[in-house]
């Protein structure tokens, strides 16, 4: 079991235990099967970013809660925590969730050909995407929009949305996520 998988599973299990939630209850809240949740908790399955988002949204928790825990310490020059999912998307937390400010921030890299679709986050969640390098398409409000380096887009993330890179090079973005609730 890789340390990354083990840590994500341990954080999910601890979060669930702190709130007295069964796997059945979490499955119902998140729309992720009890079997998949158990596999994640045991470090037997690599959850996609989309699956982690479903879990975080269902539990009304920030995504970084499962990627970096509650310490708030994220970036270390030697080895920042990164999560690569099956789509190839790489998510690196830059700022863990701050309950006072209500946000978290990620560096996201989408290799060529990558497609990552996300189900709606909790009501009121807003994403702010800043394109750093390359180009990508962002699916919001029922349509794909192309963003190139230097462009920004803010959107309501409590709707289906997605990221895809059909360009010739990796796309790199920063994604600041604002939560209207205190997690």
Describe the structure.
- This is XRE family transcriptional regulator.
- It comes from Salinicola lusitanus.
- Pfam families: Cupin_2, HTH_3.
- It is a single chain.
- The chain has 183 residues and is an alpha+beta fold.
- The protein has 2 domains: 3-67, 434 Repressor (Amino-terminal Domain); 83-178, Sandwich (Jelly Rolls), CATH 2.60.120.10.
- It has helices at residues 3-18, 23-30, 34-41, 49-58, 64-67; strands spanning 83-84, 90-98, 103-110, 115-118, 126-133, 135-140, 143-148, 152-156, 161-164, 171-178.
- Helix 2 (23-30) packs across helix 4.
Key attributes of the depicted protein:
183 residues, alpha+beta, Jelly Rolls, six-stranded antiparallel sheet, 10 strands, Cro/C1-type_HTH, XRE family transcriptional regulator
Short description:
With 183 residues, the chain is an alpha+beta fold. Helix content is 25%, strand content 33%.
As for the number of domains, it is 2
- Overall CATH class of the largest domain: Mainly Beta
CATH architecture descriptor text of the largest domain: Sandwich
Specify the oligomeric state. single chain
* Full CATH superfamily name of the largest domain: Jelly Rolls
**Rg from alpha-carbon coordinates:** 16 Å
Low-confidence stretches: none
Protein name: XRE family transcriptional regulator
Organism: Salinicola lusitanus
Domain HTH cro/C1-type: 12-66
Keywords: DNA-binding, Transcription, Transcription regulation
SSE blueprint and pairings:
Elements lengths: L2 H16 L4 H8 L3 H8 L7 H10 L5 H4 L15 E2 L5 E9 L4 E8 L4 E4 L7 E8 L1 E6 L2 E6 L3 E5 L4 E4 L6 E8 L5
Antiparallel strand pairs: 1-2, 2-3, 3-10, 4-9, 5-8, 5-10, 6-7, 6-9
């Amino acid at each position: 079991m890789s340390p990354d998988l083990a840590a994500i599973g341990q954080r999910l299990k601890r979060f669930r235990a702190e709130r007295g939630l069964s796997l059945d209850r979490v499955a119902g809240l998140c729309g992720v099967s009890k079997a998949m949740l158990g596999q994640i908790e045991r470090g037997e399955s690599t959850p996609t970013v989309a699956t982690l988002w479903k879990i975080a949204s269902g539990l009304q928790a920030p995504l970084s809660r499962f990627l970096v825990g509650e310490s708030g310490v994220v970036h270390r020059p030697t080895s920042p925590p990164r999560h690569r999912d099956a789509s190839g998307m790489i998510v690196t937390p830059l700022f863990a969730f701050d309950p006072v400010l209500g946000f978290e921030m990620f560096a996201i890299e989408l290799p060529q050909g990558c497609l990552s679709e996300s189900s709606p986050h909790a009501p009121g969640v807003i994403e702010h995407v800043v394109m750093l390098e390359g180009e990508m398409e962002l699916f919001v409000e029922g349509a794909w929009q192309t963003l190139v380096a230097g462009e920004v887009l803010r959107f309501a993330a409590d709707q289906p949305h997605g990221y895809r890179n059909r360009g010739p090079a990796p796309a790199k973005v920063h994604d600041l996520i604002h939560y209207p609730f205190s997690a």
